[in-house]
């Protein structure tokens, strides 16, 4: 079954006339995703990758009917408006690839989305892929490469990093396993969809037997996992790698890697690993060890 | 970007938060003139550093005469405060304190919204204050008004929203014996991603939290991503470190995992550097030149995961241009995969051949950590 994506999900691309938006539309179509159209203010009537372009999300909904997912590919200063348009039009799932959105704009949109029970994945999320079903965004790259890395299987993958979503998925595949869904949650301080949100979805998903997670120092999201395991809300095998052990030599408040990877007391890679291990999570010392930890449960 | 106390207080003043009278001194300025301009005898002399706990670490001095002030200033300039470089010194009127409170606004990752934190037990680390004495008020980012009578709450919220802050904190928030509320200290972190709507931020001096002034290389690299296309693939991250292994990583997550792997192998990084989001060839070229300009390098590790959409050929072309110019003699280990990986690796191979470089190339058949071990071996052999 996988999570987040269904075979017939109708997908809209906001910013489809831009270089990255067009590339994403092509990548999704190539992978069999049901991209139905795109949005770019002032470009209504154009056609990109064979799909119609509309001025607004509202116009697209009026013309195309229900949109299940909107993928947003606009510059950071236009991101708030694009997200709010999708939220106001009632699109229930929004993937935001845009990096470097001001945190205030992100918080604004997350508050608005929450009120309407809309799921935002990102910002700074390259997207997610359910092998053999479809993908939102550009995770996995060109289809030929994606097919070398992704194969339908039983491992759910969650990553703070786009590159590491692909890299960890590759290590899983190299060891002879496949993936149910691989999700890049994005590296910002605020995450529209957190580890806990996804683990809840993986728990319900029959195809997923176990989950691996690539985390980073900074932020408190890993501690949410500890709590949910204690409450038995997630019961499947879970292997986690938390990067950034070296960061403990850096001054507090310093940020390295992603925007959310801030050196802070109580949020170091070691403290997170320890807390997770205490509730039975398998901890990998190197990211490739995620594979050996999870293999018996595939 | 973290602000110094004196910069934060300018923001406070703008938003109607009272601050003590004061004057700021940078190295080489006339201390006597500055002190006398205040026209106050009893003053506090404070080191300007980028992180807290200054009081406990001898970074704050109380003085009552010019010789006292002069010796305090020169002493503060000669020290580091908890590893932080003293960029300036601020001389301020000494307040007659009745009470010390605490107030801050920051983002709460549990609610994904801002939270106002208040306590009337200020003047110490908020982490050391008992939970029962701390008030946490969730704020709605869409509402510009705060419903509370906590002093300066509305002013601080205005500052947080209008100045695109990630953190604003007043500790201590002082009530003087004559009943006035005054921000005795300031802590502000600005959101770097909002600089496009704050022209004035350009005037803030470059800074680093590494306990020293930023190096020429660090300042140089910041220019790479400047300008209109700042968000289109970044290649402007460079932190200079004490080791001798030059680093060129791709991707934020891979860079963190790889720093761990490098240190596990007993190697010491000369820098932390990461490019990502498919930066253009020219950006990668500029970045590589700067990374390799550090003297005393003993190795170079170019590593990234299996890229999604970063073009390995176009990014490697930038590295190759720099290698053609610099022709390093130390070992170079490369691990990368993704779109146009074959073409990228071929560029590297040819570059190594024509310049007689000591290069080992790896694709996705080896993990990144494995190639850290390869580099460690190669470096030890020399």
TrEMBL record, chain A:
Residues annotated as domain CoA-binding: 4-101
A Pfam family: CoA_binding
SMART domains, alphabetized: CoA_binding (SM00881)
Gene Ontology cellular component terms for the protein in this record: succinate-CoA ligase complex (ADP-forming)
Biological-process GO terms, alphabetical: tricarboxylic acid cycle
Keywords annotated in UniProt: Ligase, Nucleotide-binding
Active site, per annotation: 258
MF GO annotations: nucleotide binding; succinate-CoA ligase (ADP-forming) activity; succinate-CoA ligase (GDP-forming) activity
Name the record gives this protein: Succinate--CoA ligase subunit alpha
The organism of origin for this protein: Candidatus Magasanikbacteria bacterium CG10_big_fil_rev_8_21_14_0_10_47_10
UniProtKB/TrEMBL annotation, chain B:
InterPro entries on file: ATP-grasp_succ-CoA_synth-type (IPR013650), ATP_grasp_subdomain_1 (IPR013815), Citrate-bd (IPR032263), Succ_CoA_ligase-like_bsu (IPR005809), Succinyl-CoA_synth-like (IPR016102)
SUPFAM superfamilies to which the protein is assigned, alphabetical: Glutathione synthetase ATP-binding domain-like, Succinyl-CoA synthetase domains
Keywords: Acyltransferase, Ligase, Nucleotide-binding, Transferase
Superkingdom as given in the UniProt entry: Bacteria
Pfam families, alphabetized: ATP-grasp_2 (PF08442), Citrate_bind (PF16114)
GO molecular function: ATP binding; ATP citrate synthase activity; succinate-CoA ligase (ADP-forming) activity
Name by which UniProt lists this protein: Uncharacterized protein
